[in-house]
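tool_call predict_complex ligand=magnesium ion
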Amino acid sequence: MSKPRANFVCQACGAAAPKWLGRCPACQAWDSLVEEPAAPAQSAPAASFQLTPLAQARQAQEPRIVTGMGELDRVLGGGLVNGMVVLVGGEPGIGKSTLMLQLAASLSSAGLPILYVSAEESARQVALRAGRLGAHDQSVMLLAETGLEAMLAAWRAGGYRAVIVDSIQAARTSELAGVPGSVGQVRFCAAELAALAKETGAALFLVGHVTKEGSLAGPRVLEHLVDTVLYFESEPSMRLRLLRAVKNRFGATDEVGVFEMTEQGLTQVDNPSAVFLAHRPAEAPGSAVCAAMSGTRPLLVEVQALVSPSGLAMPRRQALGVDPGRLHMLCAVLGIHAGVDLSAHDVFVNVAGGIKLAEPAGDLAVAAAVTSSYRARPLPAGVVCFGEVGLAGELRAVSRTPARLSEAARQGFSQALTAPGKHAKVKGIRLQSATRLDAALELLA
Ligand code: TYD
Ligand code: MG
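tool_result ok
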């Protein structure tokens, strides 16, 4: 048999080359190619296959295992699916290990056998944290181990329903030469673990560190290999932690799970609207409340704007939490169709709480906040607004109006402003509508 051909893999971006090169042709990193053995060609067995009529396949609904952590279930799309592989990414210190340990405790309290592989911390460290979290459960098995082969053996030896590997960057296989955390190691270890998840039907959670400086290589190379990618992010001023799905084969990706980091670990935030609005200044110009949708959940968020005279030939437009292109468009529409001339003003917009207002329904609130700051006049208290603004200055209706209105009523708002439409009455809310942006701003003045 001929020797399997070596493969040189860039440790920064994962590109492969047939021979060693001083510089990666894909990402231009210097001296990043490392030799990795190519998988030896196996004599292929006669391929067998099984066809399923689509109509029958549809009936086999994936049963879900509810984790008992509502915010996590929400982001996963309703709970765990057998054999699902989830990558949990986030910066070091954000709370990934805490989340995973609480998940393990929650699942095991429902009687499910769980394997927690700690490749970074000793069993003692994990136990100390578990003690702090009040998570001592008999059916969580702890394995402090970095070797992939030992992990796989331990997994095979027990009938686990969920396996957590914290972190995938600390795992290493003896099959490859690279150091733990290198692209080759991470990819090989993750692929082997994922294959065992599919084989045994256990759900697999892989923890992956992502750093601010864009050293994303580790987790990023895994995104195609896993079913679901969750990112854990922080909102430093409020100790909030937002869990987002950026890929999900078993659910939507626009859901956000909201947690708070406390002394007793992560607690779920049941009423995020209240938290996001808690620090809203009363009677301040430049603040508008939008009744937004975050996935399937209505969420009230505060949009803040600051408009200040600019000395620049090209005034600044800066957006946090809204799309910068959308802000540029809204500034132009405000100038042409609503008499709010921003051509000599810098405009800064921020969505409080680190929430991303990705839907066009946020347009009206952004326009209202900008206009309010420009005119130095606060918006009336107790009003929420939502609606898409078109290039002709028209206001367009958006989906899920009843859900948005109900949430506004629940949070104690009494008025709502949006585009006209046939909306059922919501108790406690006086609904106003306008067909054009300038008319809407008039109503808010
Ligand atoms: P950790 O889960 O170790 O983060 P990661 O695995 O993402 O690196 O959590 C790190 C931080 O969370 C740490 O700075 C301490 C804090 N923390 C609390 O505030 N309360 C707690 O109960 C726990 C366990 C951690
Ligand atoms: Mg950790």
